[in-house]
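FORM 7B: Structural annotation worksheet

SECTION A. Query
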Amino acid sequence: MTRFARSALLGLLLISAAAARAEAPDGYAFKPFDQAMQQAKSEGKPLFVYFGRYGCGYCEKTNKEAFSDAQVRERYSAHYALAYVDAESGERLRLPSGERITERELGTRYDAFVTPVFSFMTPDGELVLRLVGVQRIEDLLKADAKIQEALAAAGAS
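SECTION B. Predicted structure
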């Protein structure tokens, strides 16, 4: 293989790797962060943000073993505005303040230096609970119960 052909092939591989985008779990209405935040505000729901990345084995494991569960899907779809953020993406989004940042910068702001990271937030983006790494069905259900209890207690006071 000539040096030119090798360089061209390497360039194509780098471009295709850069264009690859991580995927949210199937069966959920995950939206970009800015759209999910608007939904959270308009519906008065907490925000659930899944920080993942392309090629993340722990993300895939959590998707297959926990997000595939019908009870998790039902609760999270009903209780949260769902956002998926590719923590390595250069995709731009607009924050409620009007500031434009990349998904990568958003991940940095919320300390998503490893993936997966699951952040439960107020509709204004204030962090309430954070889970890091592979999550099991029980972990996600327990986190949901904790958030729902906190909301009920806040509503009762």
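SECTION C. Observations
Residues 92 and 102 are 4 Å apart (CA to CA). The chain has six helices and six strands.

SECTION D. Sign-off
Analyst initials: ____
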